[in-house]
Amino acid sequence: MKICVITYSFFSHGGVQRVTSTLFNELSLNNQIDILYVGNEKYSKDGLYGLNEDRINIEIKPLKLSFLERKIRKIVTVLNNKLGIFHNKFLYGLLEAAIFPKPLRNVYINYLNSKDYDIVIGSEGEIGLLLAAIADKLKAKTISWQHNSYEAYFNTREKYLWGREKSVEKLYPKLDAVVVLTEDDKHKYREKMNLHCKRIYNPLSFFSSEKSNCLHKNILSVGRLDRQKGFDLLIRAFEKIVREDNQWKLTIVGEGSDRGLLESLIQELGVSGRVDIVNFTDNIKSYYLKSSIYVSSSRWEGFGLVITEAMECGLPVAAFENAGPKEIINDNVNGILVPCEDIEALAQAILQLMHNEEKRLKMSQNAIIRAQHFNVSIVAKEWQKLFDRLISPSLEEKT
Question: Which segments constitute the Glycosyl transferase family domain (predicted)?
Answer without folding.
Answer: 217-368
